[in-house]
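STRUCTURE:
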């Protein structure tokens, strides 16, 4: 009996080992389960709008003849629209969104309506090659 109180019982030691083993398994499982998710967010790059003409918040002396958008990759044209509305929310007459023949990452519309001075908003919507739909808007002003 002397000294035996300090030594853990074999049963207790067994439980500890089991608990450690389960903890290790859980950690490993969590790591393995998260790995594909982390891998995806790191490797998949979604389509982005890189630039526009007119620039966002541009103030122009002359109304633009066209509205042009630069994407990070060629979008699916049949899922792409660019709409121009005035400050009353009224749709302005333009051509349909088309890709630049020299650069499929550029999409443009020609403005066929005479634009008076005021605020205008461009609503764009597109579908990336990977099927993700994206949309956004930006404003410009004609003085
Ligand atoms: Cu995507």
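SEQUENCE:
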């Amino acid at each position: 009996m002397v000294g035996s109180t300090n030594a853990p019982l074999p049963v207790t030691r067994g439980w500890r080992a089991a608990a450690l083993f389960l903890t290790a398994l859980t950690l490993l499982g969590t790591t393995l389960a998260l790995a594909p998710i982390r891998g995806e967010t790191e490797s998949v790059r979604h389509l982005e709008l890189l630039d526009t003409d007119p620039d966002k918040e541009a103030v122009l002396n002359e109304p633009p003849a066209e509205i042009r958008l630069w994407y990070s990759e060629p979008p699916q044209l049949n899922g792409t629209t660019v709409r121009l509305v005035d400050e009353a929310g009224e749709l302005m007459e333009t051509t349909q969104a088309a890709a630049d023949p020299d650069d499929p990452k550029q999409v443009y519309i020609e403005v066929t309506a005479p634009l008076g001075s005021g605020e205008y908003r461009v609503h764009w919507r597109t579908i990336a090659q990977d099927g993700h739909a994206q949309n956004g808007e930006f404003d410009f002003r004609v003085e």
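REMARK: The first helix runs from residue 10 to 43.
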